[in-house]
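=== Structure Prediction Worksheet ===
Name of assembly: unnamed complex
Input type: mixed (protein and possibly other molecules)
Chain count: two
Listed entries:
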Amino acid sequence: MRRVLLPILSVLLLLALWQGAAWMVGGRLLPGPLAVADALVREAERGALFHHMGITLLRVLAAFALAMSIGVGLGVPMGRSATLDRLFGPWLVFFLNLPALVVIVLAYVWFGLTEAAAIGAVAVNKIPNTVVLVRAGARSIDEGLVEMARVYRLTPAERLRHVLLPQLTPTIAAAARSGLALIWKIVLVVELLGRSDGVGFQINLLFQMFDVAGILAYTVAFVAVVQLLEYGILQPVERHCLRWRRLPADA
Amino acid sequence: MEALRGLTIAAAAGEVVALVGPSGCGKTTALGIVAGLDHDFDGSVTVGPRPDGGAARLGYVFQEPRLLPWRTVRQNLALALPRPQRKGPAVDAMLAALDLTALADRFPTQLSLGMARRVALARAFVVEPDLLLMDEPFVSLDEPTALKLRALLVGLLDRRPATVLLVTHNLREALALADRLLLLAPSPGRVVAEVPVAIPRADRDDAAIEALRGALLARPEPAFRLLA
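=== Predicted Assembly ===
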């Protein structure tokens, strides 16, 4: 009971605080939850909400897929080979400290205001972080199982699928979770700077019209969508991959 | 650090050779070299071709079962086979032979150590190995379970002989299973004595093994003092 009740109470408390602050500040500067809900319905009715959210979501998913596959592809070899790690470790430090804004601006300057430049810039911001997490996971691989795979002549692809990736599942899940949270925030920035649709573009428009209710409406909607991805996709997939851990010992 | 020096091991096809010695005498290192897992050595390893001319197949029973915890017992066996044979009858036949059919869909985390070792044994035999390397395969089991697994191993070897290198520090185990014992001394690891076991494996009951063991321990040469 407490497991369901407390989170609900927590959300209600946040809404109450918001409403209280809205009453104190008043007006267009900080609209209350009801005004934001109103703006949400308005944007939904004229179709803008779904159009921009859909576009942004596609960009998030594309950048996410790119960042995760490249991050895992670089992180596993770097964690498994000391030579590769020493060779490319300094690059990693450089890219980890590269500000997101610099990457985005340079991508637009070099590749134009294109979809590929936007998605690529977002992915580049997330890749170093994924590499660091996956590299740490790959360093703690069970060498005994790797030896077993070599003795029984599993192909490199089979070793990856049956020996390495299952051990990396918790790491990859953690990277995916933090990645999703980071990526959607950066996608809004690339949209603000160089796209003519998406939630980031829309927020810029609403900013120029000083429509705080509209800005909060898009924010709340997108946070909800990202949470839906987390609980609807990421967590079930992770649970499926780790199901062997929860089985009772009975033999 | 030098783990082994001047170590020569020769085994005839179908022969079971036990490497016996105290811990730290490089027994596991020797197996790793034979298996091709360890390349940091000077010397050579030659594994003869199969009678049909193909490359020799290798089975390895490690000191720990080393099963993939996220794959079922059946999948663990299947993955040891070349891809075309995985769906064939070999896996289920081997599971049946070792009385593991009921556990085929379990995950290794659900198995006792004795059962996990039995699965590791099944995995080594399902590939129909020409050379079988065993590294303390029955260590840290209670004696009845170890006895049962040793009997299973003898049965498997009777049905399908393989050349076996068995590493153990348990003299009784070596005398129960091997055709020949190589006694190793540590730092650096080397062979200090060779002991053939003339009695057929099937005739080696407890009394026979005790008699062999007593005779070895009574030998005056220094090599045999390491056994005590």
